[in-house]
Amino acid sequence: MSCLNFPQLRSKKPFYKKEHDEPRKSENERPQKVDEIFKKNLKDKINSRQKSFQHVC
Questions:
Q1: What pLDDT does residue 46 have?
Q2: What is the 3-state secondary structure (H, E, C) of 1-57?
Q3: Separation of alpha carbons 13 and 16, rounded Å
Q4: Are the C-beta atoms of 52 and 6 separated by less than 8 Å?
Q5: By the 8 A CB rule, do 6 and 56 touch?
Q6: What residues have CB less than 8 Å from 9, skipping those under 6 apart?
Q7: From the CB of residue 33, how many other CB atoms can be counted at a distance below 10 Å?
Q8: What is the pLDDT, as a whole number, of residue 5?
Q9: How far is CA 27 from CA 13, 23, 30, in A?
Q10: Where is the composition biased (Basic and acidic residues) (predicted)?
Q11: How far is residue 20's CA from residue 31's CA, in Å, rounded to a whole number?
């Protein structure tokens, strides 16, 4: 049961990096490259989370 709540993974870093966190020209405008990087980072984060989850168990 302790496998299911792994607090060490929860509050490490926000998904975005600092350079992505700059003011945009408009609210919903986001460069596609940043979007791709964001998705890649998200994917990597999910993969590493699954790996460490398997490791923890």
A1: 86
A2: CCCCCCHHHCCCCCCCCHHHCCCCCCCCCCCHHHHHHHHHHHHHHHHHHHHHHHHHC
A3: 8
A4: yes
A5: yes
A6: 49, 52, 53
A7: 8
A8: 57
A9: 23, 9, 8
A10: 16-35
A11: 10
**pLDDT tens, N- to C-terminus, the chain (57 residues):** 445 555 555 555 555 555 555 555 555 566 678 888 889 999 998 888 777 767 665
Residues in the chain: 57
The token pair that represents 16 in the structure block: 């975005």
Structure tokens at 44: 């990597």
Which residue matches tokens 């945009």? 24
Q: How far apart are CA 49 and CA 57, in angstroms?
A: 12
Tokens of 34: 């940043």
